[in-house]
């Protein structure tokens, strides 16, 4: 592994051979005025107004690395889908290429040779590669997103660039911790004098989008440019080609040491992304205000076998809080090189840490140092200071002193970035919401999840048993399930379920997502531990609605795709209507928020899953004049979207969450850039019968 953008091993000490930079902006030195939040809030309202009144603009970032030895093979137009006029090109941040020097000022040797602009390897007289740091320059391309049928809004004009210019002015007046978090790849700073002042906002949006996980309202991936388009890995300025996987066309990508010589990234609605970016900036700025008298914001307790994962968590936390505020051994090596380290560490964990994050696993029990830290943690539990402890699990190994009632978050398939987001949310919770975990507040355990999934399997088996259309062999269903993260079999009474179902039965389309019709006696009936509905209805086609709502809070709904009957009548191939999927996602999440509105508190976490069944060989269709530039066909039997978040988050970001679910489902149909379905979703939630 190499240091980001270099040909030297990760961890190597070096200096950059660069000239003095004028007008240098260093994130750690940033200072904010007293009313910084109000200024951003006013700007957010302006972007929001533009989003409502104007058509979306797509934005593509192209980053080209220096030396540009393969410049002729890199054509930004290959990834720009502009069908109206010419894309607007703007310049972004840049960084000079540089030789690397040792701390004594001598030229370092590299692990491999970097090619110069002519393609010649840069080596000394005896053929040793020079250590080198790649440079970069960025361009942004703005152009109208493809127009939806019936679109009548105008394109954003000068108002957008006015907002962008004002955002750039506010960017250099952020609280230092928020600035460090945003510009984590530019910690040494950048020149404000070398770029067009109004364009820094575009750099900031993409920097934030690369830090967010898939499914977040602000997210973008990076792909190689030149040769094949391959998704890149890594969090730095210079992401890498994936290793160990023989992607088709990989050999055609111009690259050095795994770093492609150019890459691109895309936002399908730069105005909407600006709104999400401002929300992110405000959240980071507020959460970084440190009122604690303790030395560390977060302390990490883990066994050495898990260092690879934990180190990535620590790195992101350090960008957020600063290294000095994160208790991670490698950040304090000089301090830890002392006798009596055992008692010193126990003091730091017990007395000097706001939140202790414990990475539990089988190895944790076996390590002497973990045992010392665990003694300090157990004493905090004894003293009723459990609000300062967050438990994470790699596995279900027993840990002395923990009981089944102690809440934890499973790491499972979560990425380090997702774990950081959980930690950040925990840091932001007021102490009154923590303390000794209550049932409704505890994180989901593996046992809880298994109980809910067992109820889901029972619901599916029940549907198969009573399905009146089973003999017809329909395979295409849209299905959703949601449930709280803590399982209690008799959590709600039947009367509470009936009241909640009535509240959640909203008729957006002429037929509610959750059918609970008093005019159809007997359609909703009690089962052993909840309510159930099955309705077969015929208008111009065959439809089937089924749902179950259990006293545990588990809800499952399944509907036969109307496309099944439609395509069978025409003897056509399996298909799924893109707008119907977007509307289904919107109505499902709307149902979730209404169903649990008076059953759960806003801080309770709710898991949501959306499935497309019978997806294999099914093709996406518009069933109108729109061209998808496909075909987009699924190659797996079913597609699933899954998210867990507090009920308040589901309510606050309903449209964004439905849009993310729709896009993720479409990605499994091999539609890599499905665009933005916000308008379809917003329209689906406005009309009510």
Runs in which pLDDT lies below 50 for 5 or more consecutive residues are: 429-443
- Quantity of strands, as a count: 26
Number of helices: 18
> How many angstroms does the end-to-end distance come to?
59 Å
Radius of gyration: 27 Å
Largest beta sheet: strand ordering: 19-20-21-22-18-24-26
Global outline: globular
Counting structural domains, the number is 3
Backbone structural class: alpha+beta
Helical residue percent band: 25-40%
The proportion of residues in beta strands is: 15-25%
Q: Taking all residues together, what is the mean pLDDT?
A: 85
Biggest sheet, open or closed, and with what strands and sense? 7 strands, antiparallel
Structure in words:
This protein is of the alpha+beta class and 689 residues long. The chain has three domains: 15-287, no CATH class; 302-437, 3-Layer(aba) Sandwich (Rossmann fold), CATH 3.40.50; 447-686, no CATH class. The protein is built from 18 helices and 26 strands. A seven-stranded antiparallel β-sheet has the order 19-20-21-22-18-24-26, with helices on both faces. Strands 4-7-3-12-9 form a five-stranded antiparallel β-sheet. Strand 13 (296-301), helix 6 and strand 14 (326-327) form a beta-alpha-beta unit. Helix 8 (341-351) runs parallel beside helix 10 (368-382). The longest helix has 21 residues, at 446-466. It is globular and about 85 Å long. The model is unreliable at 429-443 (pLDDT under 50).
């Amino acid at each position: 592994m190499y240091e980001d953008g270099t040909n030297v091993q990760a961890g190597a000490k070096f200096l950059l051979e660069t000239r003095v930079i004028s007008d240098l902006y260093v994130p750690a030195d940033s200072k904010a005025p007293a009313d910084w939040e109000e200024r951003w809030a006013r700007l957010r309202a302006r972007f929001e107004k533009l989003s409502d009144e104007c058509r979306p603009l797509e934005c593509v970032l192209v980053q080209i690395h220096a030396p540009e030895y393969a410049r002729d093979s890199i054509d930004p137009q290959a990834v720009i889908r502009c069908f109206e006029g010419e894309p607007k090109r703007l310049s972004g941040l840049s960084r000079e290429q540089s030789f690397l020097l040792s701390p004594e000022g001598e030229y370092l040797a590299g692990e491999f040779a970097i090619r110069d602009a002519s393609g010649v390897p840069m080596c000394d007289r005896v053929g040793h590669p020079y250590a080198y740091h790649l440079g970069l320059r960025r361009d942004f391309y703005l152009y109208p997103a493809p127009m939806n049928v019936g679109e009548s809004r105008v394109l954003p004009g000068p108002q957008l660039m006015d907002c962008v210019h004002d955002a750039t002015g506010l960017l250099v007046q952020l609280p230092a911790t928020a600035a460090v978090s945003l510009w984590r790849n530019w910690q040494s700073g950048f020149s404000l004098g070398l770029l067009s002042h109004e364009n820094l906002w575009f750099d900031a949006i993409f920097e934030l989008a690369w830090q967010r996980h898939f499914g977040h309202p602000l997210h973008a991936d990076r792909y190689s440019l030149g040769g094949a388009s391959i998704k890149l890995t890594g969090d730095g300025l210079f992401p890498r080609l994936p290793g160990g996987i023989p992607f088709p066309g990989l050999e055609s990508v111009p690259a050095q040491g795994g770093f492609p010589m150019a890459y691109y990234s895309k936002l399908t609605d730069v105005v909407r992304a600006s709104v999400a970016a401002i929300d992110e900036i405000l959240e980071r700025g507020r959460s970084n205000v440190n009122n604690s008298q303790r030395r560390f914001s977060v302390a990490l307790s883990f066994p050495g076998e898990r260092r690879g994962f934990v180190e990535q968590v620590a790195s992101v936390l350090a960008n957020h809080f600063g290294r000095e505020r994160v208790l991670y051994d490698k950040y304090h090596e000089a301090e830890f090189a002392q006798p009596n380290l055992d008692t010193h560490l126990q003091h730091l964990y017990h007395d000097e840490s706001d939140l202790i994050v414990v990475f539990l696993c089988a190895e944790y029990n076996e390590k002497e140092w973990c045992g010392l830290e665990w003694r300090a943690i157990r004493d905090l539990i004894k003293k009723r200071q459990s609000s300062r402890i967050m438990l994470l699990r790699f596995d279900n190994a027993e840990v002395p002193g923990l009981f089944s009632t102690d809440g934890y978050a499973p790491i499972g398939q979560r990425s380090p970035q997702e774990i950081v987001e959980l930690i950040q949310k925990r840091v932001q919770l007021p102490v009154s919401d923590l303390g000794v975990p209550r049932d409704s507040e505890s994180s989901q355990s593996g046992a809880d999840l298994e109980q809910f999934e067992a109820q889901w399997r029972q619901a599916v088996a029940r549907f198969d048993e009573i399905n009146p259309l089973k003999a017809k062999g329909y395979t295409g269903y849209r299905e959703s399930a949601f449930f709280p993260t803590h399982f209690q079999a008799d959590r709600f009474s039947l009367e509470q379920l009936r009241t909640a179902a009535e509240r959640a039965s909203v008729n957006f389309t002429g037929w509610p997502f959750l059918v609970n019709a008093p005019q159809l006696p007997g359609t909703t009936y009690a089962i052993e531990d909840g309510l159930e509905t099955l309705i077969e209805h015929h208008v111009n086609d065959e439809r089937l609605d089924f749902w179950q709502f259990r006293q545990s809070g588990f809800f499952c709904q399944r509907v036969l795709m109307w496309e099944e009957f439609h395509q069978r009548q025409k003897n056509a191939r399996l298909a799924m209507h893109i707008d119907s999927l977007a509307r289904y996602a919107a109505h499902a999440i709307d149902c979730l928020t209404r169903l649990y509105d008076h059953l759960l508190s806003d801080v309770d976490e709710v898991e949501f899953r959306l499935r497309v069944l019978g997806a294999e060989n099914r093709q996406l269709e518009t069933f109108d004049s729109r061209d998808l530039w496909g075909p987009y066909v699924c190659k797996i039997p079913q597609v699933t979207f899954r998210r867990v978040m507090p009920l308040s988050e589901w309510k606050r970001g309903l449209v964004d969450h439905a849009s993310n679910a729709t896009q993720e489902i479409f990605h499994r149909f091999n539609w890599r850039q499905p665009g933005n379905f916000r308008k379809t979703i917003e329209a689906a939630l406005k009309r009510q019968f």
